[in-house]
Q: What sequence folds into this?
C-alpha cells in the first residue's frame, strides 16, 4: 500500500502548489512565478540526479523529444498560470485537468487508433459535462 | 474571454506534451526527462517573463515552489514504480479537487450548483478515463 501513500502525498502537494499560484499571482507576475518554479525545480532535480548517480546520457532523438517536451510543458504552464490569475482557481484547475485527459483520449482515438471502450466513452461524456458546467 | 483562450492553449500544449513524455519514460528515468525539460524550460520562461513586461524580482522563497513541484512529481513517479498507472494515475489527477476546495475555503470563491456538478463530473471522468488508460 505504500504506492498509495506516495500518490496521496503527491496529489495533496500538487493541489496546494497550484492553489498557491492564485494568491501569489496577486503580488508577483505569474510568468515570473513559473520561472522561479523552474529554477527551484532545476536545482532540486540536479541535486537528486547527482545523489542517485543517474546517468544523463541520452540519444539525439531522445534529447530532441525531451527538449520539445520542455517547450510544450513550459509554454502550456505559462498560459495556465496567466489563466489562473484571471479565472477562479476552483474553475481553472478542474477544466485544465479534465481537458488534458480529454485530449489524451481523443489523440489516442484519432491518431493512435486506440480502441474507445465503454468505460472511456462514459469518461469522455463526464469530461464534456464537467467542462460545460464549469464554463457556462 | 481571453482567459479561456489562455486555458485552451494551456490544455493543448500540455495534452500534446503528455504523449511525448509517455514515449520518453519508456526508455529514460522520469527524473532525467525532467532534468532536460527544465534545462530548456528555465531560459524559455525567463524570456517569456521579459516579453510579458514583468519586472524581475528575485525572491529566494519562491524557489520553494520549484522544490514542491519537484517533490510532488518525484513522489508520483515513486508511486508509479511501486504501484501502476491505473491505480496511481487517478489519485494524482484528483489534485483538482484539492485545489478547488482550497479555493472555496481560503479565497472564498463563489460556489453554486453548476460548479459542484462540474467538479463532480470531473472526478467521475478521472475515475472512468484514468482507470481505463
A:
Amino acid at each position: 500500500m505504500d504506492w498509495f501513500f506516495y500518490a496521496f502525498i503527491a496529489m495533496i502537494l500538487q493541489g496546494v502548489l497550484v492553489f498557491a499560484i492564485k494568491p501569489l499571482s496577486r503580488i508577483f507576475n505569474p510568468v515570473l512565478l513559473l520561472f522561479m518554479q523552474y529554477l527551484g525545480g532545476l536545482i532540486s532535480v540536479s541535486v537528486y540526479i547527482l545523489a542517485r548517480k543517474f546517468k544523463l546520457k541520452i540519444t539525439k532523438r531522445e534529447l530532441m523529444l525531451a527538449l520539445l517536451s520542455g517547450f510544450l510543458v513550459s509554454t502550456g504552464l505559462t498560459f495556465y498560470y496567466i489563466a489562473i490569475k484571471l479565472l477562479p482557481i476552483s474553475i481553472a484547475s478542474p477544466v485544465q485537468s479534465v481537458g488534458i485527459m480529454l485530449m489524451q483520449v481523443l489523440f489516442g482515438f484519432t491518431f493512435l487508433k486506440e480502441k474507445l471502450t465503454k468505460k472511456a466513452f462514459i469518461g469522455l461524456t463526464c469530461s464534456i459535462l464537467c467542462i460545460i458546467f464549469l464554463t457556462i | 474571454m481571453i482567459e479561456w483562450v489562455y486555458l485552451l492553449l494551456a490544455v493543448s500544449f500540455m495534452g500534446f506534451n503528455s504523449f511525448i513524455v509517455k514515449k520518453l519514460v519508456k526508455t529514460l528515468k522520469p527524473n532525467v526527462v525532467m532534468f532536460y525539460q527544465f534545462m530548456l524550460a528555465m531560459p524559455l520562461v525567463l524570456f517569456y517573463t521579459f516579453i510579458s513586461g514583468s519586472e524581475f524580482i528575485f525572491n529566494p522563497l519562491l524557489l520553494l515552489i520549484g522544490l514542491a513541484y519537484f517533490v510532488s512529481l518525484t513522489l508520483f513517479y515513486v508511486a508509479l514504480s511501486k504501484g501502476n498507472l491505473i491505480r496511481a494515475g487517478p489519485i494524482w489527477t484528483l489534485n483538482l479537487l484539492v485545489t478547488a476546495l482550497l479555493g472555496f475555503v481560503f479565497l472564498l470563491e463563489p460556489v453554486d450548483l453548476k460548479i459542484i456538478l462540474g467538479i463532480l463530473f470531473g472526478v467521475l471522468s478521472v475515475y472512468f478515463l484514468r482507470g481505463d488508460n
